[in-house]
Design goal:
- Helix 5 runs antiparallel to helix 13 and helix 14 packs parallel to helix 18.
- Strands 2-1-3-5-4 form a 5-stranded mixed sheet.
- It is mainly alpha-helical and 570 residues long.
- The longest helix is centred in the N-terminal third of the chain and has 27 residues.
Length: 570
């Protein structure tokens, strides 16, 4: 049920989805480049490996085959790989959490993921970040299964998943970092695990070797464009280092707050109630359900006031502590292996390594909101643990020598807590915090660039026009999808004499061209040959705004005039 709700959240209002982000335009435009240009948008290799652009191209071609050769590419087809990956992630989160932490934690983790409006919004894009998550989750999970079962077949599949994550995004090697960190944590805190250091290290080396082999063709393909060095140099320009770590962390928390609506806040009570409903009916009563819902309302009120990310982070801390305590207790389930080492505790260490490692690593980079998605996926897993623990606390507990009723389990204590938490929820709604007025950020309209392309089409003759697009790959995509011949560059020395007589040349520019000092100098050279035709004002989505500005500037930029300018080249 909750997975289906998550799918609905990601697929609703398809007309509001459109290629709008700079990187989306780069990835989705491969359809219009042949072998002479490497089959890719210029410099695409600096932004992402070829896997996701290839998937988008296949999706667009499949749409043409199914709908007819004359069908123009739609934004929905460009979004399909990411939409599919986003919905698949929900199932994988459930599977991983259930295997590692149990059914109740799986319900909590899946609910947190399904109702995450941040993840839902990025699932409705043509970017690489959401598609990275299923491969990353599978790579880490399958590695844990390989170590737990001592099965090389699991190890091989884990390496393939990690390699495909690397093909999806250049930081797909995170799976290697997370698994290495999980092993080191277990060796450090569990003395008996040190008996198998050599064997575990050999498994990790095999895992890394398979991942590297799978990724090697991608690395080899970069040789045609200068190898991996240009990619590293491009990425280095976005590293803020330790000196910028704190400001980047604060910026990311502020970013996440802008994508939090009521659905994100309601994930907490929904997860708690579902966890309780999944328990044996004999262990719960009506008051248990009311207490659970009230506790969820309290978490929702807290999320509205301080932010979903901070509440989730607090739950993660609690969930990881709970798992650490479980690991330290005498094992009552499966027997240890021949070396006397338990093989059911690595999942907890991997979750801790995942969350804590990315807590340190993510703010070392410029605070682009989408970079927090891998970090957030670890938060869902550990947060599910805490949700399950809270739901268990709300169940009726029999009085016994070792489990005596506490205040929360007495009738008066429960009624008092319910009343206080409901008052907190009502007070929060009455305060009208920004979250209560934000609606559903996942469904924000992202069609501004598509509207700009339609506007340009009404100002040129599609049969004779060629539009040079500077610094706006998304606009290039929308123009080509709309049947306009577009070129993703502008040459100040362009001579109209070199074009066929029946062709009219135009130049289209936007924010990125205005920010590019080199292009502005080139534009001055060509100014006398450019005749202004029209200007189209549009409103970018918050997803684009927060890619270019910090959260405190967001309100100002929402009211700013963003323009696409069209010139005719004489």
């Amino acid at each position: 049920m909750i997975v289906l709700c998550g799918v609905g959240l990601r697929c609703a209002w398809p007309q509001r989805m459109a290629v709008e982000h700079f990187d989306e335009g780069v990835y989705a435009s491969s359809l219009w480049f042949d072998a002479s240009s490497g089959g890719r948008y210029p410099a695409r290799e600096l932004y992402a490996p070829p896997f996701v652009p290839a998937l988008i191209k296949v999706s667009l071609l499949a749409e043409q085959v199914m709908s007819g050769a004359g069908t123009r590419p739609s934004s929905m087809a460009a979004m399909f790989p990411s939409l599919f990956g986003g919905c698949l992630t929900l199932v994988i989160v459930w599977w991983v959490a259930r295997t590692w932490f149990g059914s109740a934690a799986a319900i909590g983790a899946t609910t947190l993921a399904a109702l995450s409006e941040f993840h839902a919004l990025y699932s409705r894009t043509a970017l690489t970040d959401v598609l990275l998550l299923p491969w990353l989750l599978l790579a880490v999970f399958l590695f844990e299964r390989a170590v737990a079962k001592r099965d090389l077949r699991w190890l091989a599949v884990a390496g393939v998943a990690c390699g495909l994550a690397w093909w999806t995004k250049y930081n797909g090697w995170l799976g290697l970092l997370i698994t290495a960190g999980g092993l080191v944590l277990r060796w450090a805190f569990v003395s008996r695990a040190r008996r198998t250091v050599g064997r575990d290290a050999a498994y990790w080396a095999g895992f890394a070797a398979v991942a590297a082999i799978v990724w090697s063709p991608c690395l080899w393909s970069l040789q045609a464009t200068g190898g991996y060095r240009p990619v590293m140099e491009n990425h280095a320009g976005y590293v803020v280092g330790l000196s910028g770590w704190l400001s980047s962390l604060v910026a990311q928390v502020q970013n996440l707050a802008q994508f939090e609506g009521w659905l994100s806040c309601l994930a907490f009570p929904v997860a708690l109630v579902l966890c309780l409903l999944a328990t044996d009916e004999d262990r719960r009563g009506k008051l248990d359900l009311l207490l659970t819902a009230a506790l969820g309302c309290g978490l929702t009120a807290l999320a509205v006031w301080v932010g979903v990310a901070i509440v989730l982070g607090s739950l993660v801390a609690g969930g990881l502590l709970i798992e650490c305590r479980r690991i330290q207790r005498p094992h009552r389930g499966h027997a240890p292996d021949a070396a006397g080492v338990r093989n059911d505790d690595l999942g907890g260490w991997l979750a801790a390594s995942w969350f804590l490692g990315l807590f340190v690593a993510t703010p070392l980079y410029s605070p682009y909101p989408r970079l927090t998605l891998p970090w957030m996926s670890a938060g869902w897993l550990a947060g599910g643990l805490a949700i399950a623990a809270l739901a268990a606390c709300c169940e009726r507990m029999p009085a016994s020598a070792d489990r005596r009723p506490a205040l929360i389990h007495s009738l008066g204590g429960r009624v008092t807590l319910v009343v206080l938490l409901l008052i907190a929820g009502i007070a929060t709604y009455a305060a009208r915090q920004p979250t209560t007025d934000r609606g559903t950020p996942a469904w924000q309209d992202r069609s501004g660039i598509r509207q700009a392309a339609t506007f340009i089409a009404t100002n040129v003759d599609p049969s004779t026009a060629i539009v040079f697009v500077e610094g706006e790959p998304a606009l290039f995509y929308q123009l080509r999808a709309g049947g306009i011949v577009a070129v993703p560059a502008f040459d100040a020395n362009l001579s109209t004499a070199s074009l066929p007589g029946e062709v009219d040349a135009y130049l289209a520019t936007g924010l990125h061209a205005e920010r590019n000092q080199t292009f502005q100098e080139l534009l001055e050279v060509a100014r006398r040959r450019l005749e202004p035709v029209a200007t189209f004002a549009y409103q970018p989505s918050d997803l684009v705004l927060l890619n270019n500005f910090r959260a405190p500037q967001l309100e100002t930029q929402r009211n700013a005039r963003w323009e696409i300018k069209l010139y005719k080249v004489r």
